[in-house]
Amino acid sequence: xxxxxxxxxxxxxxxxxxxxxxxxxxxxxxxxxxxxxxxxxxxxxxxxxxxxxxxxxxxxxxxxxxxxxxxxxxxxxxxxxxxxxxxxxxxxxxxxxxxxxxxxxxxxxxxxxxxxxxxxxxxxxxxxxxxxxxxxxxxxxxxxxxxxxxxxxxxxxxxxxxxxxxxxxxxxxxxxxxxxxxxxxxxxxxxxxxxxxxxxxxxxxxxxxxxxxxxxxxxxxxxxxxxxxxxxxxxxxxxxxxxxxxxxxxxxxxxxxxxxxxxxxxxxxxxxxxxxxxxxxxxxxxxxxxxxxxxxxxxxxxxxxxxxxxxxxxxxxxxxxxxxxxxxxxxxxxxxxxxxxxxxxxxxxxxxxxxxxxxxxxxxxxxxxxxxxxxxxxxxxxxxxxxxxxxxxxx
Length: 395
What we know:
The two termini are 17 Å apart. This protein has helices spanning 58-61, 87-93, 101-109, 339-346, 352-368, 374-394; strands at 3-6, 9-11, 71-75, 81-85, 113-118, 128-149, 154-175, 180-187, 194-203, 208-215, 220-229, 235-244, 249-258, 264-273, 279-288, 296-305, 311-320, 327-335. It is α/β, with parallel strands linked by helices and 395 residues long. A hairpin with a 2-residue loop joins strand 1 (3-6) and strand 2 (9-11). 17% of the residues lie in helices and 44% in strands. It has two domains: 3-338, no CATH class; 339-395, no CATH class. It has an 18-stranded mixed β-sheet that branches.
C-alpha cells in the first residue's frame, strides 16, 4: 500500500495518510506573535496540531518560566563569535515572529539567547559546531538561537542535540545578500526526550541556504521550518532524513514563502520507519505570492515502512497566486521494501537481512552526501547503521 501525490493527481491510502483531503488554511494568514497570549492552547483538532500527540506537550503548553538550560559547547573558526544575549536583543534580531505557542513561549521565557555571528566575507573549510546536551526531562528548557550571516560569507554550521530534555526552542537564521550557508540540525536525543523547534529562515538577494534536519532520537520530535525568500536570486534547499522507531513520533513541517520574483526552492525529505507505533509526519507548504514571478519550486517526501505497525503521514501543499512561474510541483510516496531490489540482491547470494540493510542504506546515502560536510555525513551514516541493526531484528 502506498500514498502517492503530485501537482496533478492525489491517491490516498488511509493506512498512511489521513490529511491530504482536508482543506488547508492559507499559511500567510496564520497568527505570528512573540506574545504567548496570542495563541490558544492547542486541543488537537487544529490543522497544525492534529497529527501531534499533544498530551505529551502539556508542560510546554503551560508556558511557565524556567531557569533550566541545556549544556552547550561551541567549536568555531577565527572571526566567528558565539555569545549570549538578553531577550530584548534577541527579539530585535529575530527574522520572523513565532508561528505557534511553543515558539512564542521560547522567545519570551528563555533566560538568554545564543547568538552566532558570521561576519561579512567570512570563509573557512571548517564548520562551526555547537553541541547542546540535556540532563533531565523533568523541567522544561526554553531556548533561543540566532544565526546572523554577513554579506558574501560562506560558512557551515552544525547544531547537535543529545541527552535528555523537554526542550522548546526558536531558531532564527538570517542569510544576508550574496552569502552562502549550510545549516545542519541533528536530533540524536535519548529515547525519552521531547523536542519542539521552530526554525525561522530569511534568505536575501543572490544568497543560498542549505538547511538540513536529521532526526533519529527522542520520544517526540517536532521541527517546524518557516522560510521566507526576500531577495531576487535567493536559493533555498531543504533536506531532511529521519529514522522513526517503535513508539517514536517524529514530525517535520515546512512552510516556504516565495515573496519576491525569480527565487528558487527545493525540499527533499526521506524517512524510514520500524516498530509498533512508529509515527512520522511530514507537511510541506509552499506559498508563491502574486509578486513572485519566475519562481521555481519543488518538494518531495518519501517514506519507507520497514515493519508492520508503523505509520507515515505525508501532506504536500502548493498555494500559487501567479501563473508567471518557472515551475512548481510536489510528490509524496510511502511504501514497503521493493521486492525486485531484494530479489536482485538475494539472487546474487546476499542474505535477506543484509539485502534489506543495503536497500535502506542506499535510500538514505544519496541524500546524506548532499550535505557536503564529510564529518557530519560520516556521523549520520553511522547513526543510520545503528538503526538498521535494530531493523534487521524486527523485520
